[in-house]
Amino acid sequence: MIEIDIYKGIPIEEVPWKRETPHKILVDTIEQLISSPAHLLDLGCGLGHNAAYFSARGFEISGIDISETAINYTNKLFKERNLKGNFFELDLCKLLALPKHSYDLAYDIEVLHHIFPSNRDTYLRNVSDLLKAKSYYLSICFSEEDINFGGEGKFRDTSIGTKLYFSSKEELQKLMSKYFEVIEIKEIELEGNPSPHQAIFCLMQKM
Ligand SMILES: C[S@@+](CC[C@H](N)C(=O)[O-])C[C@H]1O[C@@H](n2cnc3c(N)ncnc32)[C@H](O)[C@@H]1O
Question: What are phi and psi of 129, to 5 degrees?
């Protein structure tokens, strides 16, 4: 099951992943790989704070999210801050009518655990199609090694009524290798609300 708009019913201020400042590992990794004015793609851009950070640093930025609430919020944020960006309300697990080979780097942070295994091939094919040759793709999602969040096992229920899929490093290595060259894959700790998350960091390059 894919939740269409996980923001419906939660006041924006209480969205657990809402943070004004991007995770340091996201910024450090991207800024070491590429410099502005490259075109970045934020997959599952949420409320747009990560995208706003990169836009303010001079990157061209686009974002995709399945949630109308998230896209409206992001557009409002960009308008208020006088930033430029293109945001699309689309399901990344469906065929996308967007121009291919357009982006220099794509990232998804805390998104892939919303994408269940049956949808992951379509999702990754979309990501690969959108990227230019040799472009980078960084994915950070929850790990099944996490012992704090939602119990244990692969499928876990959250306090906001969503069901997430927790991955292992081995399964992501195998899955991602079908579409990308995996440059680095590792377990990391990601700051979280109310406690840190165990996550998998996977840096890839389009072949
Ligand atoms: C936990 S939030 C993370 C948002 C953002 N990346 C951040 O770090 O703040 C996950 C986001 O993925 C989006 N999402 C989930 N499934 C999606 C899909 N199939 N296509 C596009 N976006 C999706 C959700 O709407 C939500 O905004």
Answer: -60, -35
